[in-house]
Design a protein that fits this description.
Blueprint (H helix, E strand, L loop, with lengths): L1 H29 L23 E4 L18 H7 L5 E4 L2 E4 L3 E3 L4 E4 L5 E4 L1 E3 L4 E2 L5 E4 L14 H4 L13 E3 L2 E2 L1 E2 L10 E5 L4 E4 L8 E4 L5 E3 L15 E3 L2 E5 L2 E5 L21 E3 L2 E5 L2 E6 L4 E3 L2 E3 L4 E6 L4 E4 L2 E3 L12 E6 L5 E4 L2 E5 L3 E6 L3 E6 L2 E5 L16 E6 L2 E6 L2 E3 L3 E6 L2 E6 L2 E3 L3 E4 L4
Parallel strand pairs: 1-2, 2-5, 3-6, 4-16, 5-17, 6-18, 12-13, 16-19, 17-20, 18-21, 19-22, 20-23, 21-24, 22-25, 23-26, 24-27, 25-28, 26-29, 27-30, 28-31, 29-32, 30-33, 31-34, 32-35, 33-36, 34-37, 35-38, 36-39, 37-40
Antiparallel strand pairs: 7-15, 8-9, 9-14, 10-11, 10-15, 13-14
Length: 456
C-alpha cells in the first residue's frame, strides 16, 4: 500500500509540476506585445446613462439653442460653459474650428454614434495675393511668435535649429503640414514664411482651389483648477472618447495641477484633478505638445498621438497612471535640437506610471517614453518600440546622453522593464542615474541596453 501511495503522490506531484510549468510557460508567452489593435478603434458610441444632463452640439449648432435634443444642437462653446459635473456632451460629426475652451467639471465628451467630430485649431485662409514670383501672401491676425526657453543653448544648437522654428504657427495645404522658412527666398511648395512685423504669411503653392489652413488657436481644451463659468472645481477630470484634436499652435489639451518645486510627498500633489481619461482619441499636429496632463488616476487608452514637436504627451506630478494600447509616433517634426524631445515624458515625482502594450514608432529625432527626474515605481511592459533615433549612431560609452532612447529612466527610483521589443533604436533601454530597476524578457534588435551614471 505504501508503494502505491508513493506512486500516486509522485504522479500527483508530476501533474502539479506540469501545471505550474504550463502556467509559467503561458505567462512567458503572454509577456510580449499583443500586436494590437493599437490606437483608436472605429466604433459606435451609445449615448451613456448619466445622472446629469446631456447636451448635443454640432458644427452648425446655435448658441441660443438648449442643446437638449438631437434636432436642436447648441455650440460646443456654449455647452462647455453650461455643463456641471456628470453632464455629457454629445458631438455630431464634422469640423469644429474653435479653441480656448475652459472648464472645471468632471464631464464626458464623446461622438454621436459612429460620427467623427474633429476639433481644429486652424481657420481657412482664402484671401491671397499673387506676387508673381512663385509666392502668394495673405494678411493673418492670429499669430503666435515665440522664442526658445531660456535654458536652450544657442551656441551649441543654433547651427542646426534656426530661430524661426520656435514660433508656434502652423500652415497646412490640403491637410499637408508645411515646414517654416527663415525668409521669402527659402519658401517652396513644402514651406511657409511669416513676417511678424507686417503680419503677412507667404506660401509657395498656388492656393487657388486648395484648402489652406493656418493656426488661429493655441489650445483646444483647458481643464483649470480655479473658478470658471460661475462654478468651482469638482476635482474630477474629464472623460473624452472618440474625438480628434488637431492643428493647434502650442498644445491641444492642458489639465492644470500642482507642480512641486522641491521634494514633495506623494500625498501633496496630483489631487487637484483626478481621473482624467482619454480613449480612442487622436491628437495630432500641435506645434509643441499634444497634451500637458496633471493629476492622479490618469488613463490614456487606444489613442494616437502624432506629429508633435517637443513632446507628444507630457505627464507631470501624477500617480497611478495607465497608458495602454496607444500609438506614439512622429514627435519633433520640426527637428528642434537641444530641447531633448520625447513622444511621452513623465516628469517630476510621478508614482506608479504604467506603460502597457503601446506602439512607439517612427521617432528618428526624438526619445520614445522618458521617465524624467523623481519618478517612482514605473512599469514598462510589453511595448513595441521601433525606430527611435538611429541604430547607426555611434554610442559614446563615456557619455551616454544626449541620445535618443526607446525607454529612458533617468534620476528616478524603481522600475520594471519587461516583455518589450526594441527594434532599430539608438538606445533601446537607457537607465541613467537611477536605482532599483529590473529588466527581463526584453528583445533588442539593433538596439542597445545601457545602464550608466554621470557626474549628476
Amino acid at each position: 500500500m505504501t508503494s502505491i501511495y508513493s506512486v500516486r503522490i509522485a504522479m500527483l506531484c508530476n501533474k502539479i509540476s506540469m501545471f505550474v510549468f504550463c502556467l509559467l510557460f503561458s505567462s512567458a508567452v503572454l509577456a510580449q506585445p499583443s500586436g494590437g489593435p493599437y490606437g483608436p478603434v472605429r466604433q459606435t458610441w451609445k449615448v451613456p446613462q448619466t445622472n446629469g444632463k446631456i447636451y448635443y452640439v454640432a458644427p452648425d449648432g446655435k448658441k441660443e439653442a438648449k442643446g437638449e435634443t438631437l434636432t436642436d444642437p447648441t455650440t460646443i462653446e456654449e455647452a462647455i460653459a453650461r455643463v456641471n459635473t456628470s453632464d455629457v456632451i454629445i458631438m455630431r460629426g464634422g469640423n469644429y474650428r474653435t479653441g480656448n475652451l475652459v472648464l472645471n467639471q468632471g464631464i464626458t465628451i464623446q461622438p454621436y454614434l459612429d460620427e467623427q467630430p474633429v476639433v481644429k485649431g486652424t481657420l481657412v485662409a482664402d484671401k491671397w495675393k499673387n506676387l508673381g514670383n512663385g509666392l502668394w501672401t495673405t494678411k493673418w491676425d492670429h499669430l503666435f511668435p515665440s522664442k526658445p526657453a531660456n535654458w536652450w543653448q544657442r551656441d551649441r544648437n543654433g547651427k542646426s535649429t534656426p530661430m524661426h522654428r520656435f514660433n508656434d504657427d502652423m500652415v497646412f495645404i490640403d491637410g499637408k503640414y508645411l515646414q517654416s522658412a527663415g525668409y521669402e527666398g527659402e519658401v517652396d511648395e513644402n514651406s511657409f514664411y511669416i513676417d511678424y512685423e507686417s503680419g503677412l504669411v507667404y506660401i509657395g503653392t498656388n492656393p487657388e482651389s486648395r484648402l489652406v489652413e493656418i493656426t488661429a488657436f493655441n489650445l483646444a481644451l483647458h481643464r483649470i483648477t480655479g473658478e470658471c463659468h460661475g462654478k468651482i472645481s469638482d476635482h474630477k477630470g474629464p472623460v473624452i472618447r472618440g474625438i480628434t484634436f488637431t492643428q493647434y499652435a502650442y498644445r491641444a489639451i492642458e489639465v492644470d495641477g500642482k507642480e512641486p518645486e522641491g521634494i514633495s510627498p506623494e500625498t501633496e500633489h496630483g489631487k487637484d484633478v483626478i481621473g482624467t481619461t482619454f480613449e480612442h482619441c487622436t491628437i495630432s499636429f500641435c506645434s509643441r505638445v499634444a497634451a500637458y496632463l496633471r493629476g492622479d488616476k490618469l488613463t490614456i487608452r487606444n489613442c494616437k498621438v502624432s506629429d508633435t514637436s517637443t513632446e507628444g504627451i507630457y505627464i507631470i506630478a501624477s500617480s497611478d497612471v495607465m497608458l495602454e494600447k496607444n500609438i506614439f509616433t512622429r514627435n519633433n517634426i520640426e527637428e528642434i535640437y537641444g530641447y531633448y524631445p520625447a513622444a511621452v515624458k513623465i516628469f517630476n515625482q510621478s508614482y506608479r506610471v504604467t506603460c502597457l502594450d503601446n506602439l512607439v514608432t517612427d521617432l528618428p529625432h526624438s526619445n520614445g517614453i522618458w521617465y524624467d527626474v523623481g519618478n517612482v515605481d514605473g512599469l514598462f511592459l510589453n511595448n513595441w518600440v521601433e525606430g527611435v533615433g538611429s541604430s547607426l549612431n555611434e554610442i559614446n560609452y563615456m557619455q551616454t546622453w544626449p541620445s535618443e532612447s526607446g525607454f529612458f529612466f533617468e534620476i528616478s527610483k524603481g522600475a520594471i522593464c519587461a516583455g518589450n521589443v526594441f527594434v532599430n533604436c539608438d538606445l533601446g533601454i537607457h537607465i541613467l542615474n537611477s536605482c532599483d530597476v529590473k529588466m527581463y524578457q526584453n528583445t533588442l534588435i539593433n538596439s542597445t541596453a545601457c545602464i550608466s551614471r554621470s557626474e549628476r
